[in-house]
Write a structure and sequence with these properties.
The two termini are about 40 Å apart. By secondary structure, the chain is an alpha/beta fold. Helix 6 packs across helix 7 (about 170-180), helix 6 (about 140-155) crosses helix 13 (about 355-360) and helix 9 (about 220-235) packs parallel to helix 10 (about 250-255). The strands form 2 sheets. Strands 8-7-9-6-10-11-12 form a 7-stranded parallel beta sheet, sandwiched between helices. A 5-stranded parallel beta sheet has the order 2-1-3-4-5, sandwiched between helices. It is elongated, with a radius of gyration of 23 Å. The longest helix is centred in the last third of the chain and has 15 residues, at about 270-285. About 35% of the residues lie in helices and about 15% in strands. It contains 13 helices and 12 strands.
């Protein structure tokens, strides 16, 4: 019998939240009949990622109050298993949780078995969700998000790019920077050889872009974000989420669903200091946070006894008596942030997008079909 699987589980696995042995035994018989393997959680506070990413969540009445107390966001395809039809609290908890269905066993066993089989197809490759966040305003995280999505498209991945930053500059500047037809005034976001896609042959990749309607206002509800992520998990191989520098409720849901969050950081002390606070906040909700170091087009200084040669501006003390900030080598930045370094960006993101996707385990280096100019590991 499965025990508490902790924070996530697999994206194609249903999530069962109950501590009642008899109910759990019944549910496991139904998942066996549907030929799916569930993730089982006793403590709902440990399953935030699975709560968002699981294709179906089943909550026992014994854990309904605990789910509400944990502040878990509303989500689609949520089922509450009641204990007695005459118990008025069942319907109250169902409404409070936003459950799609309130069921009673064994009467609903056939329906629930069919739902397990329909929504939890283990043969389908699960969608990976990657978040991108700036360590400091203006770092270029939106452009990096667009570059990753275009690289995934070029490598035949079904991809959804979600703009989760309503107060940011949007995704259009990233497309303008990275697609020649847009940058040169063509104005149309077409897909062709100019994007780095193969000139011929069958293309299996798709790219869906979810961005903001300015008339809708600067807020996105956590329920809307959960719906977007559920759609991405059902239809895509990769979801890239452009996260806001200052998170809101919807961004917190997105971070909890991310397998990995990339933190884009400029290699200077001021940016690293700010990014360290961002990394700490993101790490509370995502276990895998990695840094992408931006060098502003200059190669990283060679490591050595002095770590970096002083620049012309750095050879003189500033008016405050302190030397101006010097660029830092990527290893220094990673150590200062307390997170591993996923990649080093010396120019525009498209120069290493395939390399980064490969490092994240999203591309097979032997079969990657893209033409990114970065060297692959």
């Amino acid at each position: 019998m499965p025990s508490d699987h902790g924070a996530g589980g697999q994206p194609h696995r249903p999530l069962l939240v109950t501590g009642q042995p008899e109910l759990l035994e019944r549910l496991l018989r139904l998942t066996d009949a549907a030929a799916v393997e569930p993730t089982v959680a006793l403590d709902p506070s440990t399953v935030r990622q699975g709560w968002v990413s699981a294709p179906l969540v089943v909550v026992g009445m014994d854990r309904a109050a605990a789910c509400l107390a944990a502040g878990l966001p509303p989500r689609p395809r949520l089922v509450l298993i009641g204990d007695r039809t005459v118990n008025k609290r069942v319907w109250e908890y169902g409404a409070d949780l936003g459950a799609d269905h309130v069921l009673f066993l064994p009467a609903a066993a056939g329906w629930l078995t069919a739902a397990f089989a329909e929504f939890c197809d283990a043969d389908r490759t699960p969608c990976a969700t990657i978040g991108v966040v700036a360590g400091r305003r203006g770092s270029g995280s939106s452009t990096l998000s667009v570059a990753l999505a275009l690289a995934a498209l070029r490598n035949d991945l079904r991809t959804m790019l979600i703009d989760a930053d309503p107060r940011g500059g949007g995704l259009e500047p990233g497309f303008t920077c990275l697609i020649p037809a847009v940058r040169d005034g063509g104005g149309k976001l077409g897909v062709g050889p100019g994007v780095g896609l193969p000139a011929g042959g069958e293309r299996r990749g798709e790219l869906s872009v979810i961005t903001w309607d300015e008339q809708a206002g600067p807020e996105l509800s956590s329920l809307a974000m959960t719906d977007l992520l559920a759609t991405a998990h059902a239809t895509s191989d990769l979801a890239v989420v452009d996260l806001p520098w200052q998170p809101d409720d919807a961004a917190a849901v997105a971070v909890a669903a991310c397998r990995t969050v990339l933190l884009l950081v400029r290699a200077n002390p001021q940016s690293v200091m700010t990014a360290r606070r961002v990394a700490t906040a993101i790490s509370r909700h995502c276990a895998d946070v990695r840094a992408v170091i931006r060098l502003n087009g200059t190669p990283p200084p060679a490591a050595g006894p002095s770590e970096a040669a002083p620049s012309e501006a750095g050879s003189h003390a500033s008016a405050s008596g302190r030397p101006p900030a010097q660029p830092q080598i990527p290893e220094q930045v990673g150590r200062a942030l307390g997170v591993p370094v996923a990649g080093v960006l010396a120019g525009v993101p498209s120069a290493f997008d395939d390399q980064l996707l490969t490092a994240l385990g999203l591309l097979d280096v032997r079969s990657a079909g893209g033409s990114g100019s970065g060297a692959r590991p």
